[in-house]
Fold:
Amino acid sequence: MIARVFTLLILVVSATAPARALPSFAVQTGQPCAACHVGAFGPQLKPYGRDFKLHGYVASDGQDHGPPLAMQVQTSFTHTGEPQAGGAAPGFRPNDNVAIDVLSLYYAGKITTDTGAFIELAYNGIQQQPQWGNIDIRHAAEGELFNKDLIWGQTVNNAPTVSDPWNSTPVWGFPYNRSSLAPLPMAATLIDGELAQRLAGGGFYTLWNDLVYAEFDLYKGLAPPGLQFVGEVPIDAGPQTDSVVPYVRLAFIKDWEKHHAEIGAYGLYADGVVPGGGQTFGLPIRATDIAVDGTYQYIDNPAKVTSDMISAHTTFIHEDSTVTAAGAGLLFGTPNHALDTFRADVSYSIGATITPTVQYFRTSGTPDPIYWSTPTGSPNSDGVIFEVAYVPFGKPDSPFPNFNLRLAVQYVNYFTFNGVSTNAGANNNVYISLWIVAHL
Amino acid sequence: MPARPRTVLSIAFLAGAVVGANAATITVVQRGLLLNTSSLTVAKGDRVVFTNEDDVIHNIHIFGPGDDEKDLGLQKPGVPLSYTFDKVGAFRVRCNIHPSIKMAVTVK
Structure:
């Protein structure tokens, strides 16, 4: 049981790919990081950042800057409420760990006039494993429909919601990085990062009249050799499927004066998924994830990219899953399990330099001691995350347009952890991280 | 009877002077990564001045009838750029860096 819990923990950790901000985009456009990103560092997007993504990462200042290559180093210190027996991860101490979380190389920018890409190749310093990161290659075009502006395009990517331009959906949502050496709740929905990098596919998206956004993608799960090739190891640490997984997204947006608002829905359907870590003893499940989300942003002075800014996001994900094998009801408490995840965060960016953020998160679902492998059989966890990020560069007057860094202090406080509220604080953690990004 | 070359040149010069004397200058403001208008109707020969009230560079491109395209170059904050519309037709204006900066110009 302990080995199974540990494996589940690893799969959750490995599924939480850190997000990035890239100077190659800044160099290509001649814009400082603060033009696209809240707090002058990715991945939280401002309206222009979303526009840049929707147009296929191709906007440029017309100058020749060479290939849009960038690199990232992310280092950290993690302290947990209590030491973790046996070490926080193979090769790490039970507590107070310093780590190089990830080293990444990116192709991020224009490929042709209408085609661009965000491609990450990473070395995971915790797992000591090279692997692919988030990938989104897209082609975009513009036109008119019913005399209103229309943007449409195609995307090829490797995670549901990685192509989404709002930070209220899972891949680019808060926290933008978190410790891989602190315990994480083991229950998560498939769309909430569980399938990220474990499938590949593509689809179409469109934005009409700056009002309605729609996207439809089809993914195919990677076979074990494919998972091995892209560094998603141990292969059975995460969910596997050979089925086609459809993903759909619809959002309505409104920009007025200093405000931006978005409300939307997204979801996926997956059949024949074998959860990682032996959660179902190799039996496949069928799952439907349906989610709603919202974003609100207020820019105090839209003419200044360093303007103070409020940014808020929320999402609610509901998953219904069924262990499809005959007799599953005898093995588990029930073959049908529901899981709900709610998150809401708000940040206030001061001068695009200091950005405090707070988030409440909660996951709850059908209790089942066999299925969830938690002490009480409950998958419930909730808590808050406090973070303060400091970004000295990435502004119009910054001396290093090819370089930026982000120093952040994050505190995660659990009220409930894997169904247990007593001593949930043992899993609380302080995470101090330093990201360094540079254009090559 | 065909006009003599000197007469033709004189008429053309006078016509140009008249157009120049009546040409208007219209200012369009770039602020908050937007233009202050989404469309404009001008007369042939009118000059449009594009200001940059943002704190980042812009790059105005003007697409005319056919394949005509004019790049006004990189525009630093606070520096105005101008373009004289000396052809009749439908034009599109947009910033190559910021797709949200766009408008239609009709020249009559």
